[in-house]
Design goal:
By secondary structure, this protein is an all-alpha fold. The chain is about 70% helix and about 0% strand. It contains two helices and no strands.
Length: about 50
């Protein structure tokens, strides 16, 4: 990576605020992902009948 590209990326990362959005709860996101994965696991085990 060139020094110009590295400095541009650093500038963009500092200006964006770090990506911490106030409306996103980490617990809600985590439990939502866990629920979706458990639902997919249940679906796969229901349809995988040999």
């Amino acid at each position: 990576m060139t020094p110009l590209a590295a400095s541009a990326l650093t500038t963009l990362a500092e200006e964006s605020g770090g990506g911490n959005h106030q409306s996103l709860s980490p617990y809600l996101t985590g439990f939502g992902a866990l629920g979706a994965l458990l639902l997919l696991l249940w679906l796969v085990t229901r349809f995988n009948r040999d």
